Amino acid sequence: xxxxxxxxxxxxxxxxxxxxxxxxxxxxxxxxxxxxxxxxxxxxxxxxxxxxxxxxxxxxxxxxxxxxxxxxxxxxxxxxxxxxxxxxxxxxxxxxxxxxxxxxxxxxxxxxxxxxxxxxxxxxxxxxxxxxxxxxxxxxxxxxxxxxxxxxxxxxxxxxxxxxxxxxxxxxxxxxxxxxxxxxxxxxxxxx
Length: 192
What we know:
By secondary structure, the chain is α+β, with helices and mostly antiparallel strands. The chain has helices at 3-13, 16-27, 33-40, 44-56, 75-92, 99-112, 126-137, 148-156, 162-171, and strands at 31-32, 60-65, 68-73, 145-147, 175-178, 181-184. The chain is elongated, with a radius of gyration of 22 Å. Strands 1-3-2 form a three-stranded antiparallel β-sheet. A three-stranded antiparallel β-sheet has the order 4-6-5. The chain is 56% helix and 13% strand. It folds into two domains: 3-78, Orthogonal Bundle (Arc Repressor Mutant, subunit A), CATH 1.10.10; 96-189, Arc Repressor Mutant, subunit A. Helix 3 (33-40) packs across helix 4, helix 6 crosses helix 7 and helix 8 crosses helix 9 (162-171).
């Protein structure tokens, strides 16, 4: 999960009316905008505004039945966002590498990289694989948006199987992908 999305989630959730809407949707059957407005004592346009914000972060979803739109709580999305904060906090508290870890890292790079810097083979062991991926990422800039083609070209400098490595970048939270655009996640979010 990208840090910006996590921050936006908490911004959206920092509103009393939105929390009340979520509580109503968690304890009741699906409700229409009109029913939500009546129960909260606000006007329907106010509900529409808050529902739109909650839909932005996937906290609610809607289903239409004839002429009425009913809103549902998306518990899975809410759980993912909540757990996302703990993941970021846990990873940021790990601190710097020890000298021993640094030596081990250098040894792994030496074993898997040829003299020209190309990757001999993708390691099977997860720990080694992550060290290799971080090495491949080191020349990419934080905050810069890359096209898929740019990422492919960068990876090809190290290994011909750019599709597998690119996929691993997403799986291990090194990068975030949206609409074919790739961006580095903060290092606190990277797999450890």
